[in-house]
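Students often ask why we bother encoding 3D structure as a string. The short answer is that it lets us treat folding as translation between two languages. Here is a chain of 210 residues written in the first language.
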Amino acid sequence: MTRLHLFDLDGTLLHHTAAPVEISRQLGLEKEIAELERDFVARRIDSRAYAQLVHGLWAGLTESHVVAAFEGAPWLRRIRDTWAEIRGRGEYCAVISLSPSFFVERLKAWGVHEAYGSRFPAVPFAEPVDPAGILTPAAKVEIADRLCVKFGLTRADCVAYGDSLSDAELFGTVPISVAVNADRHLVGLATHSYLGQDLWDAYELVRRAR
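And here it is in the second language, the structure alphabet:
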């Protein structure tokens, strides 16, 4: 069986943090992003409102800030090894995240087939953010479906890896899912659960279950 492995970014590939948090840290805006994160998790704001607020927060953002955030972030270990293994088996892997595409797409250099994030204007910002380009939890399912068409697969061939309720819709549409350092709500929806800091070990739960 050929599979499509779908990875979340924030809290999944990144250990106990999110791309906007790491970017904001480079700008000295830890307090401000923490408040936005709390509002988002509590569902007081949705992903589009969050994006517009964070766009305003990052008025001084430069490419060097983005590079430093990406390179200094606490990534899980063996991400590249895991994706190389998936590719070596003739399978596919993709990252789908609500975080900015200018951060998410950097993962293509690590060997993932596709990487999707919310569309932000180029850094440094000279344009407003377009709400239509901001991903939602439902958009993760839509992108997964498009990838299935591209690779000649179906939802039945997919494996999802995530950590929070923003992954719940995707978990509900695929037969195999791995809750990675997840909250209790998502663990209850997953077929497998992993706690730790090594992506290979999370992937092994799926590989061993073949």
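Translate back mentally: The CA atoms of residues 23 and 66 lie 6 Å apart. Keep this in mind for the problem set.
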